Amino acid sequence: MKSTNIEGVFKKNNKFFTENLKCCKGLKVYNERLINHDDKEFRSWNPYRSKLAAALLKNFKFDIKPYSKILYLGAATGTTISHLSDIVKDGVIYAVESSPIALKELIQLCKKRRNIIPILDNANHPDRYSFYINTIDIIYQDISQRNQSEIFIKNINRYLKPDGIAVIMVKARSIDVSLKPKEAFKLVEDKLIDNNLKISQTIDLSPYEKDHAAILVSF
Questions:
Q1: The listed CATH number (3.30.930.10, 1.10.10.10, 3.40.50.150, 3.40.50.2300) that belongs to domain 46-218
Q2: Do residues 91 and 68 make contact, with C-beta atoms less than 8 angstroms apart?
Q3: What is the pLDDT of residues 143-174, one digit of tens each?
Q4: Distance between CA atoms of residues 37 and 18, nearest Å
Q5: CB 139 within 8 A of CB 152
Q6: 166: β partners
Q7: What's the chain's average pLDDT?
Q8: For 145, phi and psi rounded to 5 degrees?
Q9: pLDDT tier for residue 196 given thresholds of 50, 70 and 90
């Protein structure tokens, strides 16, 4: 098991792992593989189940620290969030999800992983969860809606620190089914640039996730 340039992320045989939190030892989230090494337990991070893992395998430059504060938009049931929870063991993840069904499953995860705070709300309205959140180091969004760029920009303007970063996972078909994926990705990039955001990196997530891209931005 080797360390990577991202603190808290490890690599073995070209696969990524995160160290399972001590409170969750022996527990799986989505039937991932558990490996014991040097008296520590590591969870395999499946790039076919997590877009962030797919991006990292394709050399995505994701700057995250153990104490980072993350706003996660489109939390779903918590596959990717569980690995972020391993990484930001001294930080916190505010997990916004609009589906009560998905949130119910996420809450079960949060009972063990106390650094995740589940929030049932619509990310289109960032002011609604301002009671819980002040400023954020990282915004991570995975929402398959036509207006995903607008949602992303609103939340960045409301919560992201001046030196923070933000990641949007873009689903091309949600933007415009008539466009080729690269054209849809470019449409999102242009909208972000028009709103004074800097594109640091764009990575096509194939073959792990078809017609998706990860875009990293900053102020």
A1: 3.40.50.150
A2: yes
A3: 999 999 999 999 999 999 999 999 999 999 99
A4: 12
A5: yes
A6: 139, 217
A7: 96
A8: -130, 155
A9: very high
Give the containing element (helix H, strand E) for 191: helix 181-194
The pLDDT value recorded for residue 219 is 83
State mean pLDDT over 129-138: 95
* pLDDT, mean of residues 41-64: 96
Q: CB–CB of 218/165 below 8 Å?
A: yes
Q: Which residues contact 66 (CB under 8 A, 6 or more apart)?
A: 7, 8, 87, 88, 89, 90, 91
What are the Cα distances from residue 75, in Å, to 81, 84, 148, 149?
A: 7, 11, 14, 17
Q: Which two tokens stand for residue 64?
A: 């995250």
Domain ranges of the chain: 46-218
